Structures are given as C-alpha cells and as structure tokens.
TrEMBL record, chain A:
Domain of life: Bacteria
Native organism: Hydrocarboniclastica marina
Pfam families hit by this protein: DUF432
Protein name: DUF432 domain-containing protein
InterPro entries from the UniProt entry: DUF432
TrEMBL record, chain B:
The Mechanosensitive ion channel MscS domain, residue ranges: 99-165
Name by which UniProt lists this protein: Small-conductance mechanosensitive channel
Physiological role: Mechanosensitive channel that participates in the regulation of osmotic pressure changes within the cell, opening in response to stretch forces in the membrane lipid bilayer, without the need for other proteins. Contributes to normal resistance to hypoosmotic shock. Forms an ion channel of 1.0 nanosiemens conductance with a slight preference for anions.
Alphabetical keyword list: Cell inner membrane, Cell membrane, Ion channel, Ion transport, Membrane, Transmembrane, Transmembrane helix, Transport
Organism: Hydrocarboniclastica marina
Membrane topology: Multi-pass membrane protein
Chain ranges of the Mechanosensitive ion channel MscS C-terminal domain: 175-253
Gene3D superfamilies, per the entry: 1.10.287.1260, 2.30.30.60, 3.30.70.100
InterPro entries (UniProt xref): LSM_dom_sf, MS_channel_C, MscS_archaea/bacteria_type, MscS_beta-dom_sf, MscS_channel_2nd, MscS_channel_C_sf, MscS_channel_TM-2
Length: 265, 293
C-alpha cells in the first residue's frame, strides 16, 4: 500500500470511475474508508470507519495493492459484472435534531441565516446495470426523540451545531452537507432557539466543483402563535449539480409538523 | 300403485338429499369466497386483527345460513331444532361455563384493543409475541419459541403489559457505588457513557436519581431512553460501558459489607498479623509454645 502524506484539500469524490479487472481502489471520505476490487465475475467491497476527528477532513482516491487483511470483504457476484462504480452522497433517512452549543436568540423582526451541516451516507453504486452495493454511514449519530410527549413524536438523529451564520466560518468537510436555514422572527418577542429539526429526508444533495456538498436552503417563519411555523424548501443552489434525490418526496404537511415543536421549547 | 308411490317418495328423498348436499357445497364455496373478499376489503380499513375477525364472522354466518337451508331440505323443521336448542342451552350453559366466560371476555378484549397481532405482551411471567386473538384464547409465541395459549378470561382478570405500544422505552439501571465515592463525579461518568452510546436517546434526556443510602452502597437509578427495537442492545451495551467506565475511573461497585459487633462487654476480636515470611516456618513453633509448661 502506498504511504503518502494525505492531501486533504476538498475535491469532488462522487464522479463515476472505470476500474480494470483485478484493480483495487481505496477511497476515503472523511471518517469512512472504502476498498473496491473488480474481479472477473464479482466485485469485492470492504470498508472501515475512523472515529477520530482528525480523519474528518480526508479525501483520498488511490490505487492500492491489497484490501487490508483485518477487514471483512463482501462479495457481489455477477454474470457480467459492471465495469464502473460511483460513490454517491445521500442524506440520512431521519430528520436531524441539532442542538445549539450556546443558546441563540433572535430579536423581533430580525432574519438570520444559519449554516448547519449534517453527515451524509456514502452509497456505493455500480453502473450499467445500476446496482447499489451498500450504503455506509460516515458517522453514527445518536438517536433522539422529537415530539411533545413520549407517545407522540418521531425518531430522529441528534447532533450539535455551532449555528454559524457566516459561510466563511464553515469548516469544509467532505462527508457533511450544509443546509442554509433562514429564520425570520415575525413575532414581537425574542425567539430563543435551542433545538432545530432539519428535515433531511425531504432534501436533495448537491455537489459543487470545489468538493463541498449542499442541500436546498430551508426557510422558517416564526409568527405570534407558536404553532404556525411556516416552512419552505428553497431552490437548488446556483452552480451545483444534483447528486441524489430526496428520500421522501416533500409533502407539505409532514414538513410543517416536523418543525412545529421547534418553537415550542 | 303402492310401488309407484314408494318409488316416488324415494325419488323425492334422493332429490332432497342431493339438494341438501349441493346447498352445503355451494355454502362452503360461497362462504369461503365471501370471507376472502370481506378480508381483503376490511384489511384496507381495519387492523389485521379486526379484519381476521370479520373474515371468520362472514364465513360462519354464511355457512350457518346454508347449513340451515340444507337441513330444511332434509325435512328438519328449524323451529323444532331451535326449541330443542333452547332446552339444551340451559344444560350446555352449566357445562360450558368456562367457555362462555372466555367467549364474553374475548368480546371485551376485541372491543378494548389492549394489544394487536404482532405486539409483544407480558402476562404474569410469560412474555411473547401475539400470534392470534381468538374468541376463547390468545395465542403467544415466546422468545424461546414456545406456543402459549392464554384463556381470555385470565387476560381480562390479570395485569397485562404491552411492551410494544409506544415507540420508545426507558431502561432503568439500578446501581450502587461505595460510600467514599463522589456522587457528582459518578453522575458525570454515567452521563458521559450515555452521551457516547448512539442507541441512548438524546431527548428525553437521561435521568440520574440518587435513590438513597443503602446497606453497603449509595444507591443510584440511572434511566435512559431507547428506541423500542434497540432496547435489548442498549441494555447490554450500556451496562458494559458503565462497568468499563467505572473501572477506568476507579469507582467502586461494592459487595455487601458486614460489620461484626461483639457488644461492649466483650473483649476486642483477636487479630493475628501474618508476617511476610515463608509459610512453612510458621506452624512448627505455635503448638510448642502453647503446651503447658
């Protein structure tokens, strides 16, 4: 295996790649490493996770001589195996509840945009014919419950956010997609935000040429009565390429319900 | 003349029997088809349990009607049959007291809907998945794959717990730490363990309760929430992680302590200090000295 100094500058890792018979490729997207080998009638796939935060900035694409011995190798057997593969980012299957590290307050009449990033899954796919081999979590987020009581609500993932409001402050990591969340406080009182639910199953993932991942912007309007938090999913970010469809087609009612209790805290 | 009359009567009899058989056959067929149709329609609108009930009801009702018509064809008078049944029912009622009680309890269970097919329930010491809810009994499959039949009457009478009604569950870890430990530190260690475990829900937040001063330990209840499906996994991983974290932090989980008190009148307990000398030297001198001089 080649032991070179990792080059951590972001670059698109989702482009399709042709691979020769018996060739082995190693890809690293943040904390997850993927090894792929094409054989005469099968594909081999192995992966591992690196939980240390210093690995979060890795983007590696290299040819290697062997798959590390300690990994479990999965075989996918074909009559005529596809010659090309692709790693594709996909958002998680449940909404993500982000807690702010410090309490954030928005005065009356203000409108602010926060940039909140959420980890993506890496979907390992073969092309012609299209086959999804595996979906790999880059980070295992903690489960959480989002709802008014322990009987009513929905299961979500939990994470913490710095609730940054400057794009330039965002640390660029290959395995996280950034959602701009615009919040307008139309009520007369100060709006305190401790928790925010990002409905990622309703969002698409877009990739920029600089290797960053984005979703559509989400905007929220807080009016006098807490129960009506109007939510809208915005347009596709300019200059970005759509990489994956939303897991759940947006249904207005679902989205609004997911957001209602955000302001009830 | 007599011969022809007899043959006519026989012919009538044959026709009636044929009709009755035909009717019973058609009845079976119609009942099966109607029940299947009713099940399909009901499945869309009702729960699995209720649509199964509707299917059975339709089946037996239609079959009963056809059976009654078939009996009529054979010359039985329904009113006589029902009358006889009325007389019999008193006797049967006494004999089938248990069945009747189960039957009525079954109807209440259906109305109350404390659980559905596929739910996991606990009755007494039995815990299992509900396979079917019938008029007389509920059938369970336990986790060691045994088939358990619980009469409806006992279900109505006793306490029953449905483990899968709500999507999240709480696991209460009861643990004791030594008296010398700092409770604040123990609390922090436990909260860190819960925070690191992805199966442990972030919200509702883990609950730390200092339940009291026990005989040998400070008793603590640490309650964490988990998704229903990963409850067992959480229970294992959390307890293992707590043990490991306590070991790493040097927090003692004490064994029961016993202090022996011999009363104020008695002499203190004799204590022998064993020197760190080889064991073979020690015993030879003892008996010599204790001999009376």
């Amino acid at each position: 295996m080649t032991e070179t100094e990792p080059d951590n500058t972001l670059k698109p890792w989702w482009e399709p790649v042709d691979i020769e018979v018996e060739q082995i490729r190693h890809y690293a997207v943040g904390p997850v490493s993927v090894y792929l080998q094409r054989r005469q009638s099968e594909w081999l796939l192995a992966w591992e996770n690196f939980p240390d935060s210093e690995d979060y900035y890795r983007v590696i694409s290299e040819a290697v001589s062997e798959i590390p011995q300690h990994l479990t190798v999965n075989r996918y057997v074909f009559q005529r195996p596809p010659t090309r593969f692709r790693l594709k980012p996909r958002l998680l299957d449940r909404p993500i509840v982000v807690k702010t590290n410090q309490p954030v307050r928005i005065p009356s009449g203000e409108s602010i945009t926060f940039f909140i990033s959420s980890p993506v899954c890496v979907s390992v796919e073969l092309q012609d014919p299209d086959t999804v081999l595996q979906e790999l979590d880059t980070l295992r987020l903690s489960d959480t419950w989002f709802g008014p009581s322990t009987r009513v609500g929905e299961l979500c993932y939990a994470t913490k956010t710095h609730a940054r409001n400057e794009k330039s402050d965002m640390p660029l990591r290959p395995h996280r997609a950034v959602t701009p969340v615009n919040i307008r406080n139309q009520s007369d009182a100060i709006l305190a935000i401790e928790k925010l639910s990002i409905p990622v199953p309703f969002l698409r993932v877009y990739g920029h040429a600089d290797g960053t991942l984005w979703t559509e912007p989400v905007s929220l309007e807080h009016t006098e009565d807490n129960q009506l938090a109007k939510m809208e999913i915005g347009r596709q970010p300019a200059g970005a390429v759509a990489l994956a469809e939303a897991r759940t087609p947006p249904a207005r009612n679902n989205v609004v319900r997911a957001f209602i209790s955000m302001f009830a805290e | 003349m007599l011969d022809s009359l007899t043959s006519l009567a026989e012919l009538d009899g044959v026709i009636a029997v044929t009709r009755a058989i035909l009717m019973a056959t058609v009845g079976l067929l119609v009942a099966a088809l109607a029940a299947r149709g009713a099940h399909k329609v009901a499945f869309k609108h009702f729960s699995a349990h209720h649509s199964t009930m509707i299917r059975r009801l339709v089946y037996w009702l239609i079959l009963g009607l056809f059976a009654a018509s078939a009996l009529r064809q054979l010359g039985f008078s329904l009113s006589v049959l029902l009358g006889a049944a009325g007389v019999l029912s008193v006797a049967i009622g006494f004999a089938s007291q248990t069945s009747a009680s189960n039957l009525i309890s079954g109807l209440f269970l259906v109305g109350e809907r404390p659980f559905e097919l596929g739910d996991i329930i606990r009755v007494g010491t039995t815990t299992g998945e509900v396979l079917s809810i019938d008029l007389l009994s509920v059938k369970l499959r336990t986790f060691d794959n045994l088939f358990v039949r619980i009469p409806n009457e006992s279900l109505i009478k006793t306490e029953m717990t449905n483990l899968t009604r709500f999507p999240i569950r709480r696991f209460d870890l009861l643990i004791g730490v030594a008296y010398r430990e700092d409770i604040g530190r123990v609390r922090d260690v436990l909260l860190t363990v819960a925070d690191k475990n992805p199966l442990c829900l972030d919200d509702p937040a883990p609950l730390f309760i200092f339940t009291g001063f026990g005989e040998s330990a400070l008793n603590i209840q640490f309650s964490v929430w988990a998704k229903r499906g990963s409850f067992l996994e959480l229970r294992n991983s959390l307890q293992q992680a707590v043990k490991e974290a306590f070991d790493a932090e040097g927090i003692e989980i004490p064994f029961p302590h016993r202090t022996l008190y011999a009363g104020s009148e008695t002499e203190p307990f004799p204590v022998r200090v064993v020197a760190e000398t080889p064991a073979r030297d020690a015993p030879t001198e003892g008996p010599e000295e204790s001999r009376p001089g």
